[in-house]
Specification:
2 copies of one chain form a homodimer.
Chain A (H helix, E strand, L loop, with lengths): L3 H11 L3 E3 L11 E3 L1 H19 L5 E3 L5 E3 H7 L1 H4 L1 E6 L6 E3 H8 L9 H10 L15 E4 L3 E4 L2 E5 L4 H14 L6 E10 L14 E11 L10 H4 L3 E5 L10 E4 H4 L5 H17 L7 E5 L11 E9 L4 E12 L1 H10 L5 E3 L2 E3 L2 E8 H12 E6 L2 E6 L10 E5 L6 H14 L4 E3 L5 H10 L4 E5 L1 H6 L1 E6 L5 E5 L3 H9 L9 E2 L22
Parallel strand pairs in A: 3-10, 12-14, 22-23, 22-24
Antiparallel strand pairs in A: 1-2, 4-9, 5-6, 5-7, 8-9, 10-11, 11-19, 12-13, 14-15, 15-16, 16-19, 17-18, 20-21, 24-25, 25-26, 26-27
Chain lengths: 522, 522
């Protein structure tokens, strides 16, 4: 049986979603490019993220910083010393392996965060050998994961996270935004990590995109948030360190979570969960927050919970982001190394702001919705493959399809495309091939709705809207189409938009093999 | 007198448009970051570009490729061998200079494209010394401008242009888009050049953004374009090599230009000019195409014209983009080095597609509109500084300002902000400080309109809309506001939207010191 991961990769390549970068040269490990369908999905994810997270507070802004930064930035942040991977080399074939991953491939458990000495000991004790040639492994050493670059004659690095751009920009942005806290600085852009063993398609790349929001705030205020009451009874989906063994996710109200975690932190946990469940409309059971143990936490974080999504083709829950209370680690570090005073005066006090970081791996998130949306089912005798993407992330809001390319249907369809485009919608137009084949093409790239123009459209001004997931079709007056499409994208079921059409059955899809997105606020 | 360049830099820093990257560490030469206002302007430019250029043809798409590519890509493209700068080192202080720029700083003319030998000769003949210490310069050598990176254990480079990503993706995208030509692949993203002497703010950076569209087409079709007749009488603003001495820009119809240049090429020149003059609404006299001489042309281009804008603070016309007929240089190069057959079958023929490249430096374009929009004028006794940005590039479509923070005006203003935001507009809200001061703040960041909520709004439901450039105010019913704002953004003058309000004069601005954008199609 073909693995789901490989099926997704195949469809991604064939339909222009993603593929190995520079593949005519055999590709580069850990590098993928997005084709034009993937780019549309990624842009929609980014714009949905921007709109939602920047909309949380009038003092949250996006900035755009260079990917290359001078070495001192990363001395101050700790990355030069601490952003390292444990590696071990085979004495026989010279192959390099990440030591913790090598141990993990043989023994049960997670070995991230162990020291080189501890890892060497495990390798010796369990006689772990080179996975390529069976040779003996050398002592475990460490390798910095940043890419060094010479900028003119100065040493710099490609940023391993977007965050540092926001920290070094804080003094200026604090002035520009008239010295108000909390101040949020978001960066959407590239980050670079020279992974020893990149793997799992878009999940662990060497060059990837992040969407990160750094919230600078007065640490005295950490135990409250002005809107906490609004979410106080909202249940978070929590996997704490204690419940990790059982694997059971607990639904716990924000109020109860805030016994252990500060309210300012818990408030943003709720906002993150609402982004996934309400804005994207993912099924709750696919989402959880996972508490990290003291050994697993990044060195700069006081509280550190991962945002995890259940990605079937990657064996279950995987980290797609995190919420990190970084304290004053970064600003104090930059103050020390640069000599620039990072103290501010605020509320009659002098202090260095603390930082709450909301961090998201864009490519991982895109892969997660591809995985969740990927459904194969039998429709009559034929197999149908669908990407049940959240409607907000559909590469096109709809496809406009003339039934045939004559009798005025194509002209009418082009006119409808124009109207919908003018109404701000992303519309695909396709007039070649049988209508069934065109439906299947749209299903495979996740287009949420097909609008079909047929002889009834010419005669009586009605079009059909076909729902990607249910294949149900409804009749809509063409002059109402833009308004109805807007409702549809925001999550209305097709049935509520017009009278059902009895169509030659595409046959009922197996509704158990996937799920339907329902509640997409926009 | 303070130079305009320095004034723009000052306001950019103070208002959150751009500043030296990592400036708390003293900055890095050739690196600027965008603050949140600059980021909004840049995003608007990018989205305006996307909408217009991808809208030119249903077969034009955006893709998203890695910034790092393997060395073979750049061997094939010629960049490893030919993407070099002539440099010379001072024997005394060790300072490195770009040899052609050094010569240019002493002698009249443009010395790009001269060989190291020719440059050495000029330096010797004219006894040109080190500009820093007066020392003697060494023989001119060459330095590759690409940033090398080790990806795992493989050599790669950060791309010096986005284009190569589109070329190596061509075979896949050609399949995905069902083998139709012309096929357009656009990339908006970072490019990296290790400039010896980066300078002029956003104009020559080491890490910058490009918007490039590669159009793959059948070379047999180069002498026509299906829509050529529509622009046949449209006048292009042309500075040919022949007229360069006189500096006179000629307005020549596309039909006449197509005597010398292929129609497919001329058609896209017209589309580019329309982007600047019709979509952005720049004054025609600020725009021209500049023909490059054989010596100046990039090595891979058969036809190569620069897109130039008149940037006053940079001493006049500067390159902000180009239109390049790259022939089959790139695809043939990749075929040779990778072994992948780049031939396609199309229209019953086998051939390697040719490429027309439309290339734009995003940062240069952003700087150009900042420069063109920057106006200082006396209003009564006070100086007013305005950024007369094209309305389509305004960081916010409007600001909503309650006259005072009481009597229900603030609540009403917030309600209006919500309505406008729901109608898809980018709205800034500000309720602190005197109304005059708030107007000036919005003027300085180029916000196209201020909507003021006063006691009349509460009493009779009217707001005032204040035009940034003319300072004229008109009365508008609040329920009509979203529709009228849409007209305003698309270029309608404020006067046509409502009755003029007689206001305590902000005094007439000096209308000669700038220009007003008029015709912004959207």
């Amino acid at each position: 049986m073909v693995k789901k991961e490989n099926k997704i990769e195949e469809i991604a390549r064939r339909r222009g979603i993603f593929w190995t970068s520079s593949d005519i040269y055999g590709g580069v490990s850990g590098m993928y490019d997005y084709g034009h369908i993937g780019t549309l999905i990624k842009r929609k994810w980014e714009n949905t993220w921007r709109k939602y997270f920047l909309g949380l507070n009038g003092n949250f802004f996006e900035i755009d910083c260079r990917n290359m930064m001078p070495d001192k930035v990363f001395k101050a942040s700790g990355h030069v010393d601490s952003f390292v991977d444990p590696i071990t080399k085979c004495r026989k074939c010279g192959g390099i392996e990440r030591a913790d991953h090598l141990v993990e491939s043989i023994l049960e458990g997670n070995f991230e965060g162990l020291s080189p000495g501890e890892l060497t000991k495990l390798i010796r004790e369990h006689r772990i050998k080179c996975p390529k040639c069976g040779g003996e492994m050398e002592e475990v050493g460490i390798l910095n994961m940043m890419f060094p670059v010479m900028i003119g004659s100065s040493l710099g690095y490609l940023r391993p996270e977007t965050a540092q751009g926001a920290y070094v920009s804080f003094p200026r942005e604090f002035e520009v935004s008239r010295k108000r806290l909390p101040l949020g600085l978001a960066i959407l852009g590239r980050a670079y990590r020279n992974e020893i063993s990149p793997r799992n398609l878009l999940i662990r790349m060497r060059e990837f995109d992040q969407a990160e929001l750094q919230i600078f705030f007065n640490p005295d205020m950490i135990n409250d948030h002005e809107s906490f009451n609004e979410i106080s009874l909202y249940n978070l989906r929590i996997l704490s360190v204690d419940s990790r063994k059982s694997g059971i996710v607990h639904e716990i109200s924000c109020k109860d979570v805030s016994v252990k975690l500060p309210k300012f932190y818990v408030y943003y946990m709720a906002m993150i969960q609402k982004f996934y469940l309400d804005v994207l409309g993912l099924p709750p059971e696919k989402f959880r927050f996972r508490e990290l143990s003291d050994e697993e936490k990044a060195f700069y974080n006081k509280y550190h919970w991962d945002i995890e999504l259940d990605i079937e083709s990657m064996d279950g829950f995987r980290e797609v982001g995190g919420i990190h209370y970084r304290t004053d680690h970064d600003l104090a570090g930059h103050q020390k190394v640069s000599g620039r005073d990072m103290d501010i005066f605020h509320d009659g006090k002098k202090f260095i702001p603390h930082v709450l970081e909301l961090s998201f791996g864009i490519d991982r998130n895109v892969y997660a919705v591809l995985d969740m949306g990927f459904v194969e089912e039998m429709v009559g005798q034929e197999e149908r493959t669908t990407l049940r993407l959240p409607r907000a992330l559909s590469p096109f809001d709809c496809a406009v399809l003339p039934l045939v390319k004559r009798d005025g249907m194509d002209a009418k369809a082009l006119e409808i495309r124009k109207t919908l485009t003018a109404a701000g919608m992303d519309v695909f137009y396709d007039d070649s091939g049988s209508i069934g084949r065109r439906y299947r093409r749209m299903d495979e790239i996740g287009v949420a709705a097909c609008i079909t123009v047929d002889s009834d459209t010419i005669a009586s001004g009605t079009v059909t809207l076909r729902d990607r997931d249910t294949m149900k079709q409804v009749l809509i007056k063409d002059r109402d189409l833009a308004g109805k499409m807007r409702l549809y994208i925001s999550g209305e079921p097709a049935e509520s938009l017009g009278n059902a059409v009895i169509v030659k059955p595409e046959k009922n899809p197996d509704m158990n093999s996937g799920f339907t997105y329902s509640a997409q606020g926009k």
